[in-house]
What does this fold into?
Amino acid sequence: MSKIPYTGKTPGARQPVRQVSTDPLAPTQENYVTENPLLEDPDALAARLADSEDFIRRNRTVLLAVLAAVVLAVGGFFGYNYWKGQQDEQAQAAMFRAVDNWESDSLKAALQGDGKLPGLNRVASEYSGTKAANLANFYAGVALLKQGKFQDAYSALDKFSSDDYLVQSRAYSLMGDAQLELNKPKEAADLYSKAADHKANEYFTPGYLLKQGVALEVAKDNGAAIKAYDRILDDYATSQEAAEARQAKARLQQ
It folds into this structure.
């Protein structure tokens, strides 16, 4: 009688049928992979924590130095902004009288101060980097231009910058005026062009283009001057400057 090899199964007994899912996304024993073994294996998690603690112990000095540097950088940033805000408030208070003198055409007092409060020049230099100092450069540039100090006026206006497109365009135009007075018509024309192209609009751009044409005529570049006048006639035909541009173009073409 032959022996039946033992297989661990009862001969003749019905074996459980293995259910196979028809869903290709359903995990099976063959394709199931733990996404994060640390969540499934407490021992692996404990080992990882132990490694982290050991890393911190070995690099404690370096980590503390990095942390201190970050704290100082953040604190310095907020501290600087607070200090800058305080400086700006002081500068605005200091230049109040100077602007009042500027508006009344007391240009010397506006620029140099009245003996009690500083003038625009001092505010611009002592509070450099503040909004008030930036504005002081604009006021000072206009005052210097009126005094006939054209190079100083150009330098002051060159330090000014503004997000207000009207004021910034005006600054470029005033710098062009200074350059034209310094007998630099080509440089003046470039600045007038810059003023015209900075947020072009129907109210101020035609005037800047007319100035550009005049400066180009002074520079003996009549062809470029005609192009500036043509731009007024083409893009701003209803502006007051259009009549002057038409006359200037006709004169150059004769």
Notes: The chain has a mean pLDDT of 80. The two ends are 132 Å apart (CA to CA). DSSP finds twelve helices and no strands in the chain.
